[in-house]
Amino acid sequence: MRRFSLWLRGRPVVADSILAAVLLVLDALGVGGAPNKVVYLIFSVLLPLPLILRRIYPRAMAGTMLVLSMLCTVFGYLVGDDLSGHVALIGLGVMLYTLVAYVGRRDGLIFLVFLGVDVTVSTLVLQEPIGGDLVLIGVIYALCWTLAEFNGARHAYDAEVAARLAVADYDKERRAHEAVAAERTRIARELHDVVAHAVSVMIVQADGANYALRQDPDTAERALATIAGTGRDALRELRRTVALLRIEHAPELLPQHGTAGIAKLVDMMREAGLAVDLELTGQLDDITPEVSLGVHRIVQESLTNTLRHAGAGPKAWVRVHRRGDDIHVEITDSGGVPIRSDPAIAGAGMGLVGMRERVAVLGGTLFAGRTEDGRWRVRATLPLRAESD
Fold first, then answer.
1. Which residues form the Histidine kinase/HSP90-like ATPase domain (predicted)?
2. In whole angstroms, what is the distance from residue 277 CA to residue 266 CA?
């Protein structure tokens, strides 16, 4: 049963079709007491149909259901029969629930007003419902609204948690990639030291052997032995280092550079609940990968810090502007203080340190701190001289 429930959850049309079919059967069971059975059966079939697509086209289906309910009143008046007793009219409450839970309170309130008009017209035209029936209808609609509020809040919470987990996963993968990149940098540095040292020794010994080859063969022989030994040691170290570098990396962990990468990052933060205003000016897609990566990381770390520390309802403004010979990056948020601690996205407190180190490597400048109005601002300037190096 649980598997079937999960299967239906991913197929709303199937679940809503089952609901419509149940209402159709229940409604059709009352045809025996209807004076005009043909008209009754027609509405028994028509009334549940909008429920099938209620979660795909909620506004359109709610309007259709409301029109069908009003037609029940009109036809009931024309044929002299009370058609307001259709069980399928429960679908009006289902539509109210759908609008409030999946669209918003404003649409639900508008629909509720029209429902009130429909009930009023039915009361005036058919003198139905009266007394306790009106109270029952009001209770049903109130329960539908309340249930929609609870489920809507749960759906919003689930969506926010999913978005934050996506950000946390992305942040975890980014940190893993940066750790791998740092290790590769260390290996490259060691490789440079080993090879540079070995080659320098071999060049000096080769020059000495060439000079002493005829005048002092023993010295030349020792020099050649030194060259051979140094070469073997360097080759062994080189093979070890290259073996470490032969590690497959996941391309999806690498950030997408340029405007597309920044836009993707901003979209992800928006899904996590951070309102971001993005402004990109100048040609940002043809700068060197180092500078592009630096811009991406500064924006990423700043927005992550905003999401963690800017309090309730945070907002950030991102400005990336290419000038004549540099890139100006500015991220300002609404300020605030932490109101909660989410272990899924907790950081190690090294964000600003990492940004300063990255900017320093690129030869730029970085400012991070509060403004006079209490907001937090990160401003970086990265030179473009690497493009012509």
1. 290-386
2. 9
CA 90, CA 136: separation in Å to the nearest integer? 12
Mean pLDDT of the chain: 78
- Is the predicted pLDDT of residue 342 greater than 50, yes or no? no
CA nearest to 249, candidates 323, 183, 338: 183
- The two structure tokens encoding residue 87: 């069980």
Q: Which amino acid is at 13?
A: V
| Strand order, beta sheet including 275-281 | 275-281, 315-322, 326-333, 376-383, 365-370
262-320 per-position pLDDT tens digit = 888 888 778 767 889 999 998 888 888 888 888 988 888 888 788 777 667 788 999 99
Say whether 135 sits in a helix, a strand or coil.
helix
pLDDT tens, residue by residue, 8-42: 667 888 888 998 999 998 888 877 777 777 888 88
Question: Which long-range CB contacts under 8 A does 14-23 form with residues at least 24 apart?
Answer: 16/51, 16/52, 16/53, 16/54, 16/55, 17/52, 19/48, 19/51, 19/94, 20/48, 20/49, 20/51, 20/52, 20/91, 21/48, 23/47, 23/48, 23/51, 23/87, 23/88, 23/90, 23/91
Q: Structure pTM?
A: 0.50
Q: Provide the H-helix boundaries in the chain.
A: 2-9, 12-28, 37-46, 58-79, 91-98, 105-126, 132-212, 217-245, 258-271, 289-309, 351-361
In degrees and rounded to multiples of 5, residue 334 shows phi and psi of: -75, 0
In this predicted model, which residue has the larger pLDDT, 254 or 7? Answer: 7
Give the pLDDT confidence of 145-164 residue by residue, as tens digits: 999 888 878 877 777 888 88
Element (H, E) at 283: none
The angle at the Cα of 40, spanning 36 to 44, to the nearest 5 degrees, equals 170
274 membership: H or E segment, kind and range: none
Q: What is the pLDDT of residue 382?
A: 93
Which domains can be identified in the chain, with CATH numbers? 2-130 (no CATH), 174-252 (1.20.5.1930), 255-387 (3.30.565.10)
